[in-house]
UniProtKB/TrEMBL annotation:
Record-annotated NmrA-like domain positions: 5-96
Pfam family, any one: NmrA
Family: Belongs to the avfA family.
Molecular functions (GO terms): oxidoreductase activity, acting on the CH-NH group of donors, NAD or NADP as acceptor
Entry's transmembrane regions: 228-252
Alphabetized UniProt keyword annotations: Membrane, Transmembrane, Transmembrane helix
Native source species: Mollisia scopiformis
Protein name per UniProt: NmrA-like domain-containing protein
């Protein structure tokens, strides 16, 4: 009976993954969900109030709660880390902190379970802007400006990736790094996605499509385990310009104004 653990299910990526899992045809699927607020989760997914506890278990706590995190990912074959932020500031370490806590919890579980420990797949969301093999369809100067403006976020993601890579070398987990372009509109229906390991991607994609892609990557672990995979849209994407410009503006402000 496969167990999928979703760490953070009320943001754009986490809710898209959970929505995909709830409608999936994965046999005998069980879902563990870690959220800071059950009430916020139930607002987004009212059907969870009446769902059988035999198939879905909800843990209410911050990811810093070691015992709850360990309980949530215990026995999980697939773990989705959906806690990182889109908001740049002078000091961003949420992706790194999340990675360190997941790795620490898995280390404790391996110690507790000994030879019965089974290596899970961890799905790590990064950004295609950090992928040298996949190119965004934007001018080079525009990409460099974006990376400069929100470098704090990218640096945090790179640091988190190093933590997962070291844990993978230790045999603690298998990491699949998903590199999406700009993610848009978590209310739009899915219109299609594809995986790219070399070449050009799209400038943006819908959260709904990325959620489906993440679940598919987890199911194709034999093919993509230990790899960095670009994810692109194949259908229509509703572009939300202001929200993304605001993220870049705040990041640029934090880099240029030291107070």
């Amino acid at each position: 009976m496969p167990v999928h653990a979703v760490l953070g299910a009320t943001g754009g990526t986490g809710s898209a993954i959970l929505r995909c899992l709830l409608s999936s045809q994965i046999p005998d699927l069980r879902i563990n969900i870690l959220v800071r607020s059950k009430s916020k989760l139930f607002q987004a997914f009212p059907q969870l109030k009446s769902t059988s506890s035999a198939t879905i278990t909800i843990f209410e706590a911050p990811i810093s709660n070691e015992n709850t995190l360990k309980a949530c990912i215990k026995g999980a074959s697939t773990i989705y880390g959906c806690v990182p932020t889109n908001h740049a500031s002078r000091k961003v370490d949420i992706a790194l902190t999340t990675a360190a806590r997941i790795v620490a919890a898995l280390g404790q579980l391996r110690k507790d379970q000994g030879s019965e420990y089974e290596t899970p797949v961890v799905l790590f969301t990064r950004s295609v802007a950090l992928n040298s093999d996949v190119q965004l369809p934007i001018p080079g100067f525009a990409k460099r400006f974006m990376v400069f403006a929100i470098w704090a976020i990218y640096e945090d993601l790179l640091n988190a990736g190093e933590v997962y890579a070291e844990a993978e070398k230790d045999g603690l987990l298998t990491c699949i790094t998903a590199d999406p372009p700009g993610l848009m509109d978590n209310k739009m229906e899915a219109t299609g996605h594809k995986f790219i390991q070399r070449g050009k991607t799209t400038a943006s994609m819908n959260y709904a499509d990325f959620g489906i892609a993440m679940v598919e990557l987890g199911q194709r672990r034999e093919e993509f385990g230990g790899k960095i995979v670009g994810v692109a849209a194949t259908g229509a994407v509703r572009i939300i310009i202001f929200a993304n410009l605001w993220i870049i503006f705040l990041g640029l402000k934090s880099r240029l104004i030291p107070f």
